[in-house]
Amino acid sequence: MEIEVRIRGLMMDPSTNMPIVVLKDVNSDAVMPVWVGIFEANAIAIEVEKVAAPRPMTHDLIRNLIRHMDGQLERVVITELRDETFYATLHMRHAGEPMIVDARPSDAIALALRADCPIFVNEEVLQAAKLNSASAESPTADQLRGWLENLSDEDLGRYKM
């Protein structure tokens, strides 16, 4: 089963200084952190904040190619969590035919924002990500999970990239 999520925030991990995209289940309080690279976080932040780039960025180019080839991005799905790495797919349609393309979650999220399409996470992935955060051996993981779940709108503004 796929769970629809939205971006709850984009911030820096206080312990590693790596960017985190916080995804939130639209129908519950469940949150899932996805660590991303700095360039991918920047691409997501630019679209979240609706900053216009003077020239098309990579994800704008991909969106434009899909459109110009009469394709449509229908949704993105974070499909798997394996060896602490998330996997995602782009669900597209071209000439009436469905297509599924492998993608990194950070790229899938950046593209979904630009194409204005929904983001989903497989239920098993959402549960595994929550369990990994809750059961990791380091106390930092527990602290981070609690910190993410208790973020207020004011906190998101303070930690925004």
Gist?
The protein is an alpha+beta fold. It has helices at residues 38-48, 58-68, 105-115, 123-135, 139-149, 153-159; strands at residues 2-12, 19-25, 31-35, 71-82, 85-94, 97-103, 119-122.
Descriptive notes:
The chain has 161 residues and is an alpha+beta fold. The chain has one domain (2-159): Bifunctional nuclease domain (Roll), CATH 3.10.690. The protein contains six helices and seven strands. A seven-stranded mixed beta sheet has the order 3-2-1-7-4-5-6, sandwiched between helices. Helix 1 (38-48) packs parallel to helix 3 and helix 2 (58-68) packs across helix 3 (105-115). The N and C termini lie far apart (32 Å).
* Share of residues in helices: 25-40%
Largest sheet: 7 strands, mixed
Number of strands: 7
Choose one word for the global shape.
globular
CATH architecture: Roll
The CATH topology is what?
Bifunctional nuclease domain
Query: Mean pLDDT, as a whole number?
Result: 86
What is the class in the CATH system?
Alpha Beta
Q: How far do the termini sit from each other?
A: 32 Å
For the largest sheet, list the strands in their spatial order.
3-2-1-7-4-5-6
- CATH H-tier superfamily: Bifunctional nuclease domain
* Count of DSSP-assigned helices: 6
Q: Estimate what percentage of residues fall within beta strands.
A: 25-35%
| Structural class assignment | alpha+beta
Radius of gyration, Cα only, in angstroms? Answer: 16 Å
Order of helices and strands: EEEHHEEEHEHHH
Pick out the low-confidence regions. 133-139
- What is the count of distinct domains? 1
